[in-house]
From TrEMBL:
Designated name of the protein: Iron ABC transporter permease
Secretion signal span: none
The keyword Membrane belongs to this UniProt entry's keyword annotation: yes
Cross-referenced InterPro entries: ABC_transptr_permease_BtuC
Transmembrane annotation, as ranges: 48-71, 83-101, 113-133
Length: 139
């Protein structure tokens, strides 16, 4: 768990430090370049950090990492497109959804405990399909 904690702390610092660059990227590559953002480097580093986070989380925790696909989309729907607020709010939303899923997994078939991944998949899969079919998850 120490590996996950260190990795998450470093990645949160990275994404919060570059939140203005990601806001500039929302306006388009040319606008971001004119604002001094190295578009290719920011995109490549962001994808690399996100891929490493996903790989480590899924390897240690399993499918619970599926929450990472859903929470940013829900947060965007609730808060808009400003990355200054979306990044920390997504972390809080993910924590909240996981807490609710864990509570449900403990009380649905009490005294039996369902795997949390089953509950998160049951809640997250319909939302993920909705965002995928609707096609405006980034608006």
């Amino acid at each position: 768990m120490l590996i996950i904690g260190i990795l998450i702390a470093v990645s949160i610092i990275y994404f919060i430090y570059h939140r203005w660059d990601y806001n500039a990227l929302d306006s388009g590559d040319d606008t971001a370049k004119s604002l001094g953002v190295n578009v290719d480097r920011i995109r490549l580093c962001g994808m690399f950090v996100a891929s490493i986070i996903t790989a480590v989380i899924v390897s240690f925790l399993g499918i619970i990492g599926f929450i990472g696909l859903i929470c940013p989309q829900i947060t965007k729907k609730l808060m808009g497109n400003d990355n200054r607020y979306i990044i920390p709010a997504s972390a809080i939303m993910g924590s909240l959804i996981l807490l609710i899923s864990d509570t449900l997994s403990r009380i649905i078939l009490s005294p039996q405990i369902l795997p949390v991944g089953a509950v998160t998949s049951f809640l997250g899969a319909p939302l993920f399909l909705y965002f995928l079919i609707k096609g405006d998850a980034d608006k």
